[in-house]
Write a sequence for this structure.
């Protein structure tokens, strides 16, 4: 068995059940894969093989993920391990506690394998804003993997991890999943505890799975979901058995296609691939209809006001007092704050802190922040209306283009922000969505489609995504590295 | 609305963020583009009816937990990441003038 690294978690669990492999074999296989390809992909900020092997020797007797190595985005706290948000300001930071999702993974027998690279503080759509190095797309290393969970998506696509956790504030799981040809889900706001996720925008952030297929997504979501008294925004409703939602059948499911998501200027190959996926689902018995989400065009504007406002407030804690780096030889307390932050934050973080502080500042609050909060309500109403009318899911492209070239958008923040045009509304509303591979461009780049569900209806979007996957093999392709 | 360098400097001071002159003018220029885009909310969208502002996906009241004593994190763990400490305290430059 020398290709264990290429298997899904569900496949590996079956082998572990039969005792034909040991957890240590899986860790050895995945680590040697990472050792041979991560020099090209650069998806990891660090791998702890010895630690992982140590954990594998002391696994709980049972668990949904017993023996499965998982990569963790570098903004999710792992006790005693470096957790830096790919930022210099947190260099050397070792959290004194585990995020709830990490506790849950460990109690289910998963093994934390390494820290996945990301855009600094999750600010970006390309992974180029990491303060350490950019991650590259395993399908074409002259291109970006998407972001901000670019490292998580890239290591799963390159078989350097069996599965990974990311976080999604405006598309940061789904967009890199689409661009790397893997499955990525943002659960309903409140479905997964955010305790121990270093906050970007607290009313939008949600942790979710990046996996090789939909079954693994259902498996990992089931392991991390649930109420947590340490996160008062987590919601106390039972977690269904997501794997049992995967019937392989879409017959009778009502799928809406929002006309606002098929816009001029969208990549033609993306447009064609998504429309073909719609036709396939229709052929398998789904009831497809056009719907309208009329406030879609305002989503990016609303997002960049609210998300930066929340970020500017959340990032106030990085001041050189309690953790992270502090500037050399501060003259007084103000000098310490200003220089610590000026030296520690990268360009995009500074831009967002300024924009967020500006829209919250006296004289601009009503025109920007308050207005954006109102339009956010209208965007949520759009979703409420179509789901109340009986839709099971909404199908859209995940990203308007396939992976772009490294450097192509890095000097123009607005063009970078528009990369998330199809994913942002979902965070503003709070509903769940999943991106699944739905084709490749002629030049061999993955294309993803997005299925959006109503609040806490992850089971339905997983079912539709899985049924699609049963009839296609896009998710089985692997990049040549 | 055009953003002047002075405005960026003022906001940077509010945010306790030291910027170089080059960063100030670059950010001023980039904010012009971003705010120009964001201004479509003010130009093209008329919210005539009274829409309540939305701060959070779940319109919840403040959740309370039971008022029960439980252990907090140990002092050494909390101080383990301190850039500078003295005894059981975080050490910072003098805040109150002599």
């Amino acid at each position: 068995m020398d290709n264990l690294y290429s298997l899904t978690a569900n496949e590996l669990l079956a082998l572990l059940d039969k005792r034909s492999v040991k957890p240590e074999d899986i860790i050895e296989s995945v680590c040697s894969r990472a050792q041979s390809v991560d020099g090209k992909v650069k998806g990891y900020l660090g791998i702890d093989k010895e630690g992982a092997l140590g954990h594998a020797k002391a696994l709980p007797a049972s668990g949904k993920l017993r023996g499965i190595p998982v990569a963790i985005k570098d903004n999710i706290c792992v006790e005693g391990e470096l957790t830096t948000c790919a930022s210099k300001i947190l260099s050397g930071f070792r959290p004194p506690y585990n995020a709830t999702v990490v506790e849950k993974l460990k109690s289910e027998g998963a093994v934390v394998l390494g820290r996945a690279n990301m855009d600094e503080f999750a600010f970006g759509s390309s992974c180029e804003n990491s303060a350490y190095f950019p991650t590259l797309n395993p399908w074409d290393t002259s291109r970006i993997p998407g972001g901000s969970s670019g490292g998580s998506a890239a290591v799963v696509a390159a078989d350097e991890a069996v599965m990974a956790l990311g976080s999604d504030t405006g598309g940061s799981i789904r967009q890199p999943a689409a661009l790397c040809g893997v499955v990525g889900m943002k659960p309903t706001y409140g479905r997964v505890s955010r305790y121990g996720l270093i906050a970007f925008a607290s009313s939008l952030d949600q942790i979710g799975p990046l996996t090789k297929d939909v079954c693994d997504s259902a498996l990992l979501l089931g392991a991390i979901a649930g109420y947590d008294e340490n996160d008062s925004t987590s919601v106390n409703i039972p977690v269904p058995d997501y794997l049992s939602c995967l019937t392989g059948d879409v017959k009778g499911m009502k799928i809406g296609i929002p006309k606002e998501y098929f816009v001029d200027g969208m990549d033609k190959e993306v447009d064609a691939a998504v429309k073909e996926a719609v036709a396939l689902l229709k052929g398998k018995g789904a009831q497809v209809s056009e719907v309208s989400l009329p406030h879609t065009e305002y989503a990016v504007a609303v997002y960049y006001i609210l998300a930066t406002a929340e970020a500017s407030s959340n990032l106030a804690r990085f001041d050189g007092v309690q953790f992270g780096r502090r500037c050399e030889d501060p003259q007084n307390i103000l000098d310490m704050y200003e220089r610590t932050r000026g030296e520690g934050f990268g360009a995009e973080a500074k831009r967002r802190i300024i924009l967020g502080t500006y829209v919250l500042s006296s004289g601009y609050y009503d025109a920007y922040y308050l207005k954006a909060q109102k339009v956010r309500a209208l965007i949520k109403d759009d979703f409420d209306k179509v789901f109340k009318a009986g839709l099971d899911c909404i199908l859209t492209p995940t990203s308007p283009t396939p992976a772009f070239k490294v450097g192509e958008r890095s000097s123009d923040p607005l063009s970078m922000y528009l990369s998330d045009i199809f994913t942002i509304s979902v965070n503003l509303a709070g509903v769940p969505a999943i991106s699944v591979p739905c084709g490749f461009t002629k030049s061999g780049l993955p294309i993803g489609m997005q299925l959006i569900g109503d609040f806490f209806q992850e089971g339905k979007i997983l079912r539709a995504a899985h049924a699609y996957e049963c009839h296609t093999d896009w998710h089985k392709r692997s990049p040549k590295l | 609305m055009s953003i002047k360098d002075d405005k960026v400097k003022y906001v940077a001071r509010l945010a306790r963020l030291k910027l170089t002159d080059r960063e100030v003018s670059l950010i001023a220029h980039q904010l012009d583009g971003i705010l120009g885009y964001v201004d479509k909310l003010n130009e093209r969208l008329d919210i005539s009816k009274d829409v309540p502002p939305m701060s959070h996906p779940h319109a919840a009241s403040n959740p309370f937990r039971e008022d029960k004593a439980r252990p907090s994190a140990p002092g050494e763990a909390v101080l383990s990441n301190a850039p500078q400490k003295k005894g059981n305290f975080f050490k910072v430059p003098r805040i109150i003038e002599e």
In short: Residues 79 and 96 of chain B are 23 Å apart (CA to CA).
